[in-house]
Design goal:
- With 56 residues, the chain is α+β, with helices and mostly antiparallel strands.
- The protein has one domain (2-53).
- Helices cover 46% and strands 14% of the residues.
- It is globular and about 30 Å long.
- The mean pLDDT is 89.
């Protein structure tokens, strides 16, 4: 698991959606395996200073 501390998390839905797309493109398993729906992942990024990813 990778934990990332974020100094300036997104403050609006548009920015969060663009970041979520970047996360999908990195191949993070917690996003691409269907465990966390894309929209839920984008919403979780809003004002969140800590993000977590995993890869198998």
């Amino acid at each position: 698991m990778i934990h990332v501390s974020v100094a300036r998390p997104p403050r609006d839905a548009d920015h969060a959606n663009r970041l979520a797309l970047e996360h999908v493109l990195t191949g993070a398993d917690n996003i691409n395996d269907g465990t966390v729906p894309y929209r839920d992942h984008a919403a979780s990024l809003l004002d969140s200073p800590l993000w977590s990813f995993w890869r198998d």
